[in-house]
Amino acid sequence: MGLVSALRLAAIIFVSFYLLAALFMYLSQRSYQYFPSHRGMGAAAVGLSGVADLKLVTEDGERLQVWYTAARPGKPTILYLHGNGGEISDRGERFAVYQAQGFGVLFVSYRGYGASTGSPSEIGLVRDARAAYDWLIAQGVRREAIMLVGESLGSGVAVQLAAERTVGAVALEAPFYSAADIAASIYWWLPVRLLMKDKFDSFLHIGKVHAPLLIIHGDQDEIIPLGEGRKLFASANEPKQMTVVPGGTHGTIFSPDTWMSEMQFFAQYSKP
Question: Smallest Cα–Cα separation from 128: which of 71, 77, 100, 88?
């Protein structure tokens, strides 16, 4: 075999392996983006009291596990949209902190998470958030009294919901400009924007958000770099505020200090 033939064969083998790898990543990509758990525990099982365990039905027929407690008089209600791992039963401490301050609280396990039916996707998660919002409205909660919290991946869901629904304020924890940016930095050898199904392009929606915005981001975030949060903040409308947590990583900023900061921010824009 001549050199040219050998090189041609090597190129064919390389391209074949690359295409197979790209096809595999395309078909299995959601298993690398969503990491649900399925314990489906009730609020009482994680030590919460005065919390209703409910099931909400989405516009496409999925049944979502949610926890809800009503607000004390004059207090707003927090609609919390979690990150890509676990489920709401992993976030009992957060619920308790919000609840102790008298806020109404609605936690939603996305489709495919906890005891919720279905499988996660960008379109699906936004539908889940929309179902939760509409349910709160049906309970008599005013639009301006709904405060959104989006954690990590949930920031992309929160931005899209706030772009199409009226809310009192929005707090985003470790948000991204686009989830595709994060994926492209990890899978640099793939044409991510061509292959990715759930891009969560928050930059396409943030300009339609007119509610007051708080962004909290750690300067040592190893998953979603601080630059992502800064870019999103720069694209957002006023009024807006950004808090950079010195030494904060992607895990450590999801803490009581952050939750208290959010509630203080919401209190500024809460109208009894």
Answer: 88
Q: Which residues contact 271 (CB under 8 A, 6 or more apart)?
A: 144, 145, 168
Q: Is residue 8 in some structural domain? A: no
**What is the CATH classification number for the domain harbouring 135?**
3.40.50.1820
Per-residue pLDDT 10s for the chain (272 aa) are: 577 676 787 778 878 888 888 888 889 999 999 999 999 999 999 999 999 999 999 999 999 999 999 999 999 999 999 999 999 999 999 999 999 999 999 999 999 999 999 999 999 999 999 999 999 999 999 999 999 999 999 999 999 999 999 999 999 999 999 999 999 999 888 888 999 999 999 999 999 999 999 999 999 999 999 999 999 999 999 999 999 999 999 999 999 999 999 999 999 998 76
Range of the domain at 122: 33-268
Q: Please state whether beta strands 213-218 and 169-173 pair in parallel, antiparallel, or not at all (unpaired).
A: parallel
Query: Tokens 């999801």 appear where?
Result: 254
C-beta atoms surrounding 222 within 10 Å: 9
Tokens of 51: 């919390």
What is the tally of structural domains in the chain?
1
- Long-range contacts, 83-87 (Cβ 8 Å, 24+): 83/151, 83/152, 83/153, 83/154, 84/33, 84/34, 84/35, 84/152, 84/153, 85/35, 85/36, 85/37, 86/35, 86/36, 86/37, 86/113, 87/36, 87/37, 87/38, 87/39, 87/40, 87/113, 87/114
DSSP string, 231-272: HHHHHSPSSEEEEEETT--TTTTSSHHHHHHHHHHHHHT---
25 lies in some domain: no
* Tokens at 48, concatenated: 């919460």
First to last CA, the chain: 82
